[in-house]
Amino acid sequence: MSKAHVTTTINGDVVEYLCEPDQSMLEVLRDNLELTGTKEGCATGDCGACSVSLDGRLVCSCLVLGVEAEGKQIETIEGIADGSELHPIQQKFLENAALQCGICTPGFIVATKALLAKNPDPTEEEARYFLAGNLCRCTGYDKIIRAVLDAAAEMRGAAS
Amino acid sequence: MLQVDLSFDLQEFSSGLESLEVEATNIRELLAQLDIRFPGLGAKIEKDMAVTINGVIYQETLIEPIEDGSEIYFIPKIGGG
Amino acid sequence: MSTNKDYKWVGTSPIRPDGADKVTGKAAFGADKNLPGMLHGKILRSPYGHAKIKSIDTSAAESAPGVLAVMTSKDLPDLASEMGEAGESAVDFRDLSQNILAAGKVLYHGHAVAAVAATSPKLAKQALKLIKVEYEELPVVLEIEDAMADDAPILHENQFTPGGSQDKPSNIAGKMKLPRGDIEKGFAEADVIVEREFTTPTVHQGYIEPHAVTASMSASGHADVWCCTQGAFVVRAMTAKVLNMDVGKVKVTPSEIGGGFGAKTTVYLEPIAVKLSEMSGRPVKMVMDREEVLRATGPTSASVIKIKLGATNDGKLVAAEGTLKYGAGAYKGSPMGPGCMCVFASYEIPNFVVRGFDVVLNKPKVAAYRAPGAPMAAFAMESVMNEMAGKLDLDPIDFRLENAVKEGSVAAYGPKFPAIGFVETLKAAKEHPHYSAPLGKNQGRGVGTGFWFNIGMQSSATLNVNESGSVTLITGSADIGGSRASMALFAAEELGIDYDLITPLVSNTEEAGYCDVTGGSRTTFATGMAVVKASKNLVANMKKRAAKTWGVEVDEVLWQDGQAVPPFSSGKNPMSMAEIAASAAKTGGPLTASASLTAQGAGAGFGVHICDVEVDPETGKTDVIRYTAIQDAGKAIHPAYVEGQYQGGAAQGIGWALNEEYVYNDKGVLQNFGFLDYRMPVANDLPMIDTVIVEVPNPAHPYGVRGVGETPIVPPLAAVAEAVNNAAGVRITDLPISPPRLLAEIDAK
Questions:
Q1: What phi and psi, each to the nearest 5 degrees, are found at residue C16?
Q2: Predicted-assembly ipTM surpassing the 0.90 threshold
């Protein structure tokens, strides 16, 4: 099977790569492009550890093919911070001790950014339902939800 | 003199004796004394058991000093998640 | 609760040192390690739950495109059955080896049979299909009591029940008995007796990061291993043993670890990756997928537990009888022992007997899971305690207070308790507003308590002082939930310098002093103790340096707030740590300090959980609507991460109670091998989880620390079940309380 040539934009950079037609976006990010911040927890779309944004839409990169990225805009965990300045979501995850092992954290942060873009002032229940596709086994979600609501408040404050 | 109580599973070595007194000043001496009295018992404890001295659990140590009059009990070694 | 205000750093919750890398995707976990020229290893797994392996033909796979090595158990040394210490508990190395690659027989669906290394994961997977294995299928046995029956299919022809027939092999690999007093007399004194049998399912630890390793064997016979593990030294010990290598020839570098909960204290892939690397001369990377994780790693034991409890009308326990049967999976070694020791450990009961059975089954060999063996035992005992409180018309917490162990009580497992905080924890639960809050329709409340021993074991720590006075702190204890922060807090407190000046590292087996696994809630306790001791050694050294500089006696020098303070009579000014470090070359050379120890006196941890649920009587669905976890931490070093342990353990326990279970078909094939069907709690399944940190200091630790990670998974099973009982008017004895099961209970009323 010959490889496909793909031109796309990842975290603002124009990127070209060759990939197998059956390679997932997750495999391309991790194996071809060495963007290993995006994690594989299940490869079946059930855990959210591989969450990325594709043209502004939250997706599990394990369920997207690498060839589907052609001409699209992708944002991964590596593109969330502004240079060495942490994004408020990242900062609030740290301040709220919202991670223990940290393997689910990139996916949660990408998903939280997608949530807050849609709904800058979520209730606790809205945050819980939106993030229900991201599994965390360490925290019981309490501190994650607090971090998300805290980040939302901070971002609303900064925006007003 | 130390007060040593043996759990049910260890009484197989002591022909059913539940408790005894032993003269020892550390765990190594204690196990050596037990092994003299009931061959195999000290080795079994050293391999598979933790030693409790007045309720405090000691695992993987032979050098721990034991004060005279202490109560000794042996339990299976404990791991954890 | 009580917090010692004398500390500047201990007891605060600063941002963890490794935090920024973990929120930006820079932190390297198990699967993130790549090496030039690396091959990819894949494993062929058994399609049968139980079968004889008649032959394996790997020749077609060996000549397949891109394949550089193929191996089976024949490529591993034949090990004698030998119990050995590797990590935190004894392991039979032959069983370990045969679990890594099946020899002669496959004992569960998913049991590893052969492995391939190829130039891409895809080619490796294609080559697996070319391996021809001839099996003779055998009957499977999946349920504990079936496996104990006389006519059960036998897993191991060479396994005999201790104390039983030595002619007829048996699936009962171990037995235990803990008696006290006279139970017949005890039950005769009882006014009320409750007797129930409980079952709990096989459940998985459910870490999000699958097992992963990259290994490279050099031509000189040195193996370099990178992997996600709770203990690099235990990986080293087990890998060396399974491959018959000297431990000094195996270097293990731990990656960041994406959860373990006990299951990453053993090895599955590492010896295979090293061997494939040796055979191919290339580095080999192996990463499990989720299906492999669920089919062939972890889980913890299913159980069948019978409890009979007798009490007097005034609420005193007088007798108890417990029978605990735990499934070990394919090889002996369920946590039946700790289960037996825990089941009555929280109460003073004058007469009891506990009997335990360790039973092998055609399921994956169990691995440690948070307080191994205790949650199922507590589910049974605490459920009976709740039922008994109801029969006696006593408040469930008052009933427990009446019988709770305290300092000086003789624990059911033998020794006398030193200072413990069960009574304080129960009282804190009773006083918590949650306990007396009103409930609505179809809602119910339950309490459950939990006990765990906690452990000490071996740890080492090294401090290297930089010329600016900042410090690098090296240990070999995997950081699974923020322990770098706790280690830095101890060092900052002892040295009197800022937390930010300390860089804590988790190093490899050739650079760090020996540390046992991060497990058993030992790292903050034991590795923390090594950090405190190393820091004290460093302070003593720095006082010496200052004394030399000033020309005074060392015992005249004080250490205060990160400075050496001279005697007033000397007329000298204090020297800061930075100044001492800057002049170290002139006072004896670089400043370093180390400490190693076998930590003793890990203090027992007690927890009490309060759970409110709402049950939908139409569907049988249970929603947890309020939850509070209260536990004695001894001393919380980093309170936010202590809370995190309470919350995370509670969430795992809630999942165990309500949803999680391994579902097998009658051929022993796991049916729910993904996260969609192996249903762990998600964010909208849970409420906020309130916590109360009780602090009854552990006298054996310089800061009073007790381990906190294990205990929180012990109380939830019974707390949730009792809440459901009270909400729906049922009596739950079997987990999980899934909607169809609860609906059947409601309909049967």
A1: -70, 145
A2: yes
Flag whether B81 is in a domain.
Answer: no
Q: Which domain holds residue B42?
A: 2-76
Q: How far is CA C659 from its chain centroid? A: 20
pLDDT at C671 over 50: yes
Residues of C in contact with B47 (CB under 8 A): 83
Q: How many domains does chain B have?
A: 1
Subunit contact B73:C414, Cβ cutoff 8 A: yes
Set of chain B residues whose Cβ sits within 8 Å of the Cβ of C176: 9, 76
Count chain A–chain C contacts defined by CB atoms under 8 A: 181
Partners of residue A142 in chain C, C-beta under 8 Å: 643, 647, 686, 688-689
Residue C7: exposed, middle, or buried by beta-carbon count in 10 A (0-12, 13-18, 19+)?
middle
Tell me which chain B residue has its CA closest to the CA of residue C175.
Answer: B9
CB contact (8 A) between residue A42 and residue C13: no
Note the pLDDT tens digit of each residue in C627-661. Answer: 999 999 999 999 999 999 999 999 999 999 999 99
C257, closest residue in chain A (CA to CA) = A101
- Which chain C residues have a beta carbon less than 8 Å from that of A143? 640, 643-644, 647
* Residues forming a β-bridge with C670: C664
Strands (E), C242-342: 250-254, 284-287, 303-311, 317-329
Facing C600 at nearest CB: one of B7, B54, B56:
B56
In C103-177, where does DSSP find H-type helix?
Answer: 121-128, 144-148
Domain A4-79 -> CATH class: alpha beta
CB contact under 8 Å between C651 and A81, yes or no, is: no
**CATH C-level class of C19-26+456-599:** alpha beta
C257·A99 Cβ contact <8 A: no
Q: What is the mean pLDDT of residues A107-127?
A: 98
The superfamily in CATH containing domain A88-159 is [2Fe-2S]-binding domain (1.10.150.120)
Question: Nearest-5° angle of CA C33, CA C36, CA C38?
Answer: 70
DSSP C347: B
> Are B and A touching by the rule of 3+ CB pairs within 8 Å?
no
Which CATH fold would you assign to the domain C33-138+205-296? Aldehyde Oxidoreductase; domain 3 (3.90.1170)
pLDDT single digits (tens) C541-582: 999 999 999 999 999 999 999 999 999 999 999 999 999 999
A109 interfaces chain C, CB cutoff of 8 Å: yes
Can you tell me the distance from the alpha carbon of A111 to that of A88, in angstroms, rounded to the nearest whole number?
14
C298-356 pLDDT per residue, tens? 899 999 999 999 999 999 999 999 999 999 999 999 999 999 999 999 999 999 999 99
